[in-house]
Amino acid sequence: MLKKLQKTTDFIKKKLPDIPEAGIVLGTGLGKLVDEIKDQQSIFYNEIPNFPVSTVQGHEGRLIFGNLGNKFIVAMQGRFHYYEGWSFEEITFPIRIMKYLGINSLFLSNASGGVNPDFEIGDIMIITDHINLMPGNPLIGTHDEKLGPRFPDMSIVYDPGLISKALEIAEANNMKARTGVYAAVSGPTYETPVEYKYIRQIGADAVGMSTVPEAIVARQMNIPCFAASVITDLGVEGKIVEISHDDVIDVAGMTEPKFTLLIKELILSI
Question: By the 8 A CB rule, do 100 and 16 touch?
């Protein structure tokens, strides 16, 4: 792992004019934030040593560098998922690379199904905690202390300061932002009505197929982390309808302008 990290980091650093301050992972249908990045350059995933390649519609598959306001940042336009066949180590490899490149904060986004009956389609949910229902953990396996502790504390995964700032930004821009718990499942099937009910009963407000492995690795590597979901469908009794991945992309796309504003202003505030 350490040799792979060093080789990949060396490859990317040779192409960069500066050290990125923040890392961003853009989820399904939320890739347009890159339009706000100035003086950008990009590297396709298939050009980067040891990098997986995204196979999901709505995930472009590029690592993008540039200036967001006065911040030099790195953004993943497309992420990797367990349901694509990648291991948890491969899924989270880019997060470790971002740390090696020098980021001091990480911003994660996703599209998810709301199981809180108070939620509406198109809501933005700021993640305050998570439940890992995936069949594994990215820290399983041979351990090296250079990557962080063997048993990282998970009492505060999502940075309270960033959450507070995000809520202030949302209020200042008349943007309704929810807070809640995100449950991560393997996918790729959407949930059955009983599964939605179960996920709600164990304490979640939304459910999706990503983010948690990335947040776990960020915690191990001591990277302050912020994460938010766009609620693209509802897993609430009486409101469940048949959905497709195209539906999810469409709703995420409609929510994109306000989501982009939130993330951009949050990064500029750090």
Answer: no
pLDDT digits (tens, 9 = 90+) for 114-148: 999 999 998 999 999 999 999 999 999 999 999 99
CA–CA separation, 87 and 93 (whole Å): 10
Which tokens hold the place of 17?
Answer: 């004019």
In CATH terms, the fold of domain 2-269 is Rossmann fold (3.40.50)
Q: What is the CA radius of gyration of the chain?
A: 17
DSSP letter at 192?
P
Q: What are the distances in angstroms from CA 184 to CA 59, 132, 149?
A: 19, 5, 23
Contact 184, 206 (CB under 8 A): no
Q: Look at residue 239 and give its three-state secondary structure.
A: coil
Cα-Cα end-to-end distance for the chain = 31
Query: Hey, where are the domains in the chain?
Result: 2-269
What would the pLDDT profile of 147-194 be if each residue is shown by its tens digit? 999 999 999 999 999 999 999 999 999 888 999 999 999 999 999 999
Q: What is the model's pTM?
A: 0.93
Structure tokens at 171: 């209020």
Q: What is the pLDDT of residue 14?
A: 93
In contact, 206 and 119? CB cutoff 8 Å: yes
The candidate with the shortest Cα–Cα distance to 258, out of 167, 170, 129, 147, is: 170
Q: Which two tokens stand for residue 163?
A: 């959450």
Q: Using CA atoms, how far apart are residues 262 and 255, in angstroms rounded to an integer?
A: 11
262 near 169, Cβ under 8 Å?
Answer: yes
Rounded-to-integer distance, Cα 66 and Cα 34, Å: 9
Contact status, residue 116 vs residue 100, Cβ threshold 8 Å: no
Does residue 56 register a pLDDT over 70?
no
Rounded Cα distance between 20 and 71, Å, is 8
Contact 36, 79 (CB under 8 A): no
